[in-house]
Every structure is written in C-alpha cells, then in structure tokens.
Amino acid sequence: MDNPPSKLAHETTPLAQDHRNQEIASAQGPPPPYIPPPSSIPYAPTTTTVVVVPLEFNSKPAKVMCPSCNMSITTRVEHEAGTMTWMLCCFVSIFVLCCDFTKDVNHFCPICHRRLGTYRRPCSSRIVTFIILINLIIPIITIILLAMSDSHRYNG
Hints:
The chain contains 4 helices and 5 strands. The protein has a domain at 63-148. The chain is an alpha+beta fold. It has helices at 7-11, 14-28, 83-91, 125-151, and strands spanning 63-65, 72-74, 76-80, 104-108, 115-119. The longest helix is centred in the C-terminal third of the chain and has 27 residues, at 125-151.
C-alpha cells in the first residue's frame, strides 16, 4: 500500500521552501540600501602638500609672486661680475668689466628687498665673438691713428 506522497510533504522540500521565500521577498519589496557603520573617527585629517617651484630668471626683470612677502612684483635687477665675466676679462679684454651683458644678473623683490634668484650668463659664442672683434678693432684703430699722426706732423 503505497501511499502517494502528500501535497504537504511536497511543499516542504528545500526547493519549494526556496520558491516560497522568493515569493515572500518579492512581495515585500527591495531590501534597504546598505549603510556602513559610522566611523570611529568623526573626520579624517587632511594634508596639504605645498610644491615650491624654483623661479627661473633671465637677464630682464621678471613678473613673479615673491615667496617671501607673497606680493605680485616685477623684480629689480642688479648686475654682478660672475665667472664668465672674469674669464673673459683675463683671457680676452678688461673692457668686459664695463659691459652688463657679460655679467650675471641678481633678481630682488622691490618690496621686501630679498634676493629671489640669480641668472648666470652662459658663455655664448655671440658674446665671445663680440669681445674678440672689439680686441681686433681697437688695435687697428690705434695703428691707423698713429699712422695719421705721423703723416700730418708739421716739420718746420
């Protein structure tokens, strides 16, 4: 006497229970969104990274923000004999000490008077050529003037 499985026993199988749980869940609506538990730290400290960019100058006054007084300024420049000036003075001519274009350039803030940087002159071929030409022209002019003075001398 085999009894057919009862309808009640069939509904209590794991598959039937899972189907029933899905029906109940869909009738209730979607689950509430996940909200993470509050952190034990009420706020995270922030760090600010300050990047200091070195100022690059040339031979002319520059418009910059002075890092010392935080003002927007145009630098004041002063010329100073540097390595190139002294090398040209020793090997070419003493006249380079009279020329600003051979000297290094110091940049200063006109408000707080701090030195902001220095432009060191590169020893360019144009400068060397100019100095050599001056050294060639001066002796030639001297020779011409001496020759003219001898030819125009009055012998009475």
